[in-house]
Design a protein that fits this description.
This protein has about 150 residues and is of the alpha/beta class. It has one domain: Flavodoxin domain (Rossmann fold, 3-Layer(aba) Sandwich). It has six helices and six strands; from the N terminus they run βαβββααβααβα. It has helices spanning about 15-30, 65-75, 80, 95-105, 105-110, 130-145; strands spanning about 1-5, 35-40, 55-60, 65, 85-90, 115-125. Strand 3 and strand 4 (about 65) form a beta hairpin. Helix 1 crosses helix 6 (about 130-145). It starts with a strand and ends in a 6-residue tail after the last helix. The chain binds flavin mononucleotide (FMN). Flavin mononucleotide binds next to helix 1 and strand 3.
């Protein structure tokens, strides 16, 4: 199985990098081939065709998704390429998970109505610094994917 983690963050080496690396490592340990890539607003996302699963997420800055991710959702063929695809979404933020579920996750999920969203996760106040949280998310994703042959 081939997965790609598509993300954006304004920081380097921040919580987004830590969380996506942990998710990716756990998927690799369970037989996935995993790449990660940032989301320039005007790129051609046709290359996503080759992946079985796309993980798509972003930290929140000033109530919004990271600007390059929202730019890609608005201005490129990203959404078109994700239509019909298995997608797992994640949000990383400083506030509580319950408010992020209302305020931030819809900014992603409402764009993905033509995709098959198999899992979603908010890494907020309670979960962002828990090293088990990315692993639990990866396990949830694995439980929704076909079994990988050894
Ligand atoms: C400039 C700035 C604005 C932020 N605005 C919000 C916000 O509106 N809501 C929220 O829940 N968290 C907010 N945060 C918290 C970030 O989403 C959180 O710290 C996240 O882990 C940042 O990811 P990073 O470390 O990979 O950059 C903000 C952080 C920064 C630096």
């Amino acid at each position: 199985m081939k997965a790609i983690i598509l993300y954006d963050a304004l920081s380097t080496g921040g919580s987004t990098d830590r969380i996506i690396d942990s998710i990716g490592e756990h998927l690799v340990k369970n037989g996935f081939y995993v790449e990660k890539a940032k989301t320039p607003p005007r790129a051609d996302y046709g290359f996503l065709e080759e992946f079985d699963l796309v993980l798509l997420g972003s930290p929140i800055y000033n109530l919004q998704l990271s600007p390059n991710l929202s730019g890609a959702l608005n201005q490129s063929n990203l959404l078109k390429t994700l239509a019909g695809k298995k997608v797992a979404t994640f949000i990383i933020c400083g506030g509580p998970e319950f408010s992020a579920a209302l305020l931030y996750m819809p900014q992603l999920k409402l764009r993905l109505l033509r995709s098959e969203v198999i899992a979603e996760k908010i890494f907020g106040l309670a979960e962002k610094n828990n090293p088990q949280s990315p692993i639990d998310f990866a396990n949830e994703i694995l439980s929704k994917m076909p079994v990988v042959a050894p």
